[in-house]
Specification:
By secondary structure, the protein is mainly α. The chain has ten helices and two strands; from the N terminus they run H-H-E-H-E-H-H-H-H-H-H-H.
Length: about 220
């Protein structure tokens, strides 16, 4: 599927009234799912989802009815379009839980800002971009934009998730020294200059003197 639309998992629940045709039907469905299905879904969502939004659906179940094997190639795409339209009409008619979320309808509609925030949260928690993220930019570029446009929101996210040591290590190791300095300035504006200067001096000293790591130092102290 193209970068515009993605499916995490597709599962068919099929029954056959002619067992001797089961293998042929399974082969058809497998090939169709990796070609026609992807194209049909791309067209459907591209026509309906605005460019500035991301639509996230946890689960979507479609009943395509009974179709004869010899009619599958023509009938299956038509059934899919009709069922998709019916399912989305129902989803969009259900009550909203908030201005940017439709949790009751199993559909979340996110604007670009919220999508970037959720991507940052997903990265900090798991170390990788969410499967549904369709932007070509990497986490460093996304963070740069959020720091420029929504610094207060970034600060809240970092204070919340930064309680985890794993998240703090991820920030230090993967976001780069320049961004780390911006983050420190955001979270501790009165102490940022001192902290960044001390960190820089420590790194320079470490490189010059080849200071042993903490484990080596601990071993030396214990053995003495």
């Amino acid at each position: 599927m193209s970068s515009e639309s993605m499916i995490a998992r597709c599962r068919w629940q099929s029954t056959f009234d002619q067992q001797d045709q089961a293998a042929a039907l399974q082969d058809f469905i497998s090939q169709w799912s990796h070609s026609v299905l992807e194209q049909e879904l791309d067209v459907f969502f591209s026509e309906r989802c605005p460019a500035h939004q991301t639509w996230r659906i946890d689960t979507l179940q479609l009943d395509l009815g009974d179709i004869a094997l010899e009619d599958m190639a023509l009938e299956l795409p038509r059934r899919l379009r009709v069922c998709l339209q019916t399912a989305f009409d129902e989803l969009l008619s259900l009550p909203r839980s908030s201005a940017s979320s439709r949790t009751e309808s199993n559909l979340r509609i996110l604007d670009m800002g919220q999508t970037l925030e959720d991507s940052l949260i997903g990265f900090l928690r798991h170390g990788s971009m969410p499967w549904w993220f369709k932007d070509a930019r990497n986490i460093q570029q996304i963070l740069d934009q959020l720091l420029s446009e929504q610094p207060d929101r970034v600060a809240r996210i970092l204070r919340d998730l930064g309680q985890s040591e794993t998240v703090r290590k991820r920030v230090v190791w993967q976001l780069g020294e320049t961004r780390l300095g911006r983050i420190i300035g955001l979270l501790e504006p009165w102490q940022a200059e001192v902290a960044c200067t001390y960190a820089h001096q420590f790194i320079v000293l470490h490189n010059k003197r080849n200071v042993p790591n903490a484990n080596s130092a601990t071993t030396a102290i214990r053995s003495g």
